[in-house]
């Protein structure tokens, strides 16, 4: 919708996998989401603009080729992956599903672009979690190294913390190969943890609302803390909360995509942007939410179900998107209160039993 609103002819491709995970896990988004055809119809009513839809799966290569041939885009924004770290860690089947779905879907898309029109710019959603938490500064995708008196520029070393995050590392390698060997042009957006639920476009009509996940598998940390505060439930800080992550407001995520699309990578270039605007530890995030909420808030330190460093160095370079013109919304000037209102209006939809984390990082403990 943000691209359509910015004047681009836009189409959407979906296989509704995200909705099927909700069915599987017995949860639903806090804010109800309409069917795709209702949403595209609503968008046309409020904006006068058409978003064509193609329903199918990136794992179906024929469908991917047909879609690219039919629409012939200048750019493909690829967000069509299983995106939850805990989901990928449930068991072997979910790990294999995640990597197969993500890596093979992306590979089908790379081949379709290479064979049909290598000029098409791939804008791919990566993740900050590809890097993990190294004890050195995190550069934007690439690292200049000197080794035994010689220098080179290499992909930044990756040490991701889940099978899901690993799938994005595999994607990045495949995309870099396609740029280097087939001269494709691609931008990998290594996005941090997104917070917020509304963009100017989704706010135009309730039928345009996007997801607001609260459960322990798909809900992301700041959104979960906001929901827990409104429900009068303790904020679930895993471990000491010393783990630090890059954050980004949902309005900035869509703006970053527009900036990447309108300023394409060069032919043969694998361009990486660290798509985050500030870093914060989990305990700092909990404190911000507790300070902003008008009532009492309890913070609970749970045993961490994940395997991650409890305290660590974290210093991320993220100048690329700002150089293209991004004006970040920072958490300190974000209207967290508006998120409280959305939760208040929908809190009857929450199943509190789904708030606690159920997935552990060792395979035997989820059996
Ligand atoms: N955490 C808590 N309490 C909670 C939920 C999470 O302490 O109730 C902690 C986690 O242990 C972790 C941090 O908060 O250290 C972030 O967890 P998250 O679930 O908000 O985010 P994550 O699993 O890293 O994944 C999310 C998205 C994923 C995206 C990633 C960006 O689901 O698609 O790739 O954020 S990043 O984290 O930068 O890799």
Notable traits:
367 residues; alpha/beta; Rossmann fold; four-stranded parallel sheet; three-stranded mixed sheet; 13 strands; 37% helix; 18% strand; globular; binds sulfoquinovose-uridine-C1,5'-diphosphate
For the biggest sheet, the summary is:
4 strands, parallel
Compounds present?
sulfoquinovose-uridine-C1,5'-diphosphate
Task: Characterize the overall form.
Answer: globular
The number of helical segments is: 12
- Terminus-to-terminus distance: 41 Å
Beta-strand content estimate: 15-25%
Fold and architecture overview:
This protein has 367 residues and is an alpha/beta fold. The protein contains twelve helices and 13 strands. The strands form five sheets. A four-stranded parallel sheet has the order 3-4-7-11, with helices on both faces. It has a three-stranded mixed sheet with strand order 8-10-12. A hairpin with a 2-residue loop joins strand 5 and strand 6 (150-155). It starts with a helix and ends in a 21-residue tail after the last helix. Bound molecules: sulfoquinovose-uridine-C1,5'-diphosphate (USQ). Residues 83-85, 127-129, 165, 191-193, 220-221, 224, 236-238, 243, 245-246, 282, 306, 308 line the site of sulfoquinovose-uridine-C1,5'-diphosphate (USQ).
């Amino acid at each position: 919708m943000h691209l359509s609103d910015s004047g681009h002819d836009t189409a959407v491709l979906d296989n509704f996998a995200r909705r099927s995970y909700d069915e599987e896990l017995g949860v639903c988004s806090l804010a109800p989401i309409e069917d795709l055809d209702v949403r595209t119809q609503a968008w046309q009513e409020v904006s006068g603009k058409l978003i064509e839809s193609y329903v199918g799966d990136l794992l179906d290569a024929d469908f991917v080729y047909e879609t690219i041939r039919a629409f012939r885009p200048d750019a493909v924004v690829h967000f069509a992956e299983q995106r939850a770290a805990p989901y990928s860690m449930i068991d072997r089947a979910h790990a294999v599903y995640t990597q197969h779905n993500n890596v093979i879907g992306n590979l089908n898309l790379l081949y379709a672009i290479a064979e049909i029109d290598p000029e098409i710019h791939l804008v791919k959603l990566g993740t900050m979690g590809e890097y993990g938490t190294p004890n050195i500064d995190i550069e934007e995708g690439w690292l200049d190294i000197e080794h035994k008196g010689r220098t080179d520029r290499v992909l930044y070393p990756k040490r991701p913390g889940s099978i899901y995050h690993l799938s994005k590392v595999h994607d990045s390698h495949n995309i870099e190969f396609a740029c280097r060997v087939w001269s494709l042009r691609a931008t990998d957006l290594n996005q941090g943890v997104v917070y917020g639920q509304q963009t100017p476009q989704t706010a135009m009509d309730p039928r345009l609302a996007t997801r607001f996940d609260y459960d322990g598998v798909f809900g992301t940390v700041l959104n979960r803390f906001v929901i827990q505060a409104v429900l009068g439930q303790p904020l679930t800080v895993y471990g000491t909360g010393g783990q630090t992550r890059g954050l980004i407001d949902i309005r900035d995520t869509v703006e970053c995509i527009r900036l990447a699309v309108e300023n394409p990578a060069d032919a043969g270039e694998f361009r990486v942007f660290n798509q985050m605007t500030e870093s914060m530890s989990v305990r700092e995030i909990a404190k911000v939410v507790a300070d902003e909420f008008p009532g009492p808030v309890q913070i609970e330190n749970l045993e961490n179900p994940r395997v991650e460093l409890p305290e660590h160095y974290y210093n991320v370079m993220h100048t690329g998107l700002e150089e293209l013109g991004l004006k970040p919304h920072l958490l300190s000037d974000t209207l967290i209160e508006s998120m409280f209102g959305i939760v208040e209006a929908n809190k009857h939809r929450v199943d509190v039993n789904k708030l606690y984390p159920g997935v552990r990082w060792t395979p035997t403990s989820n059996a």
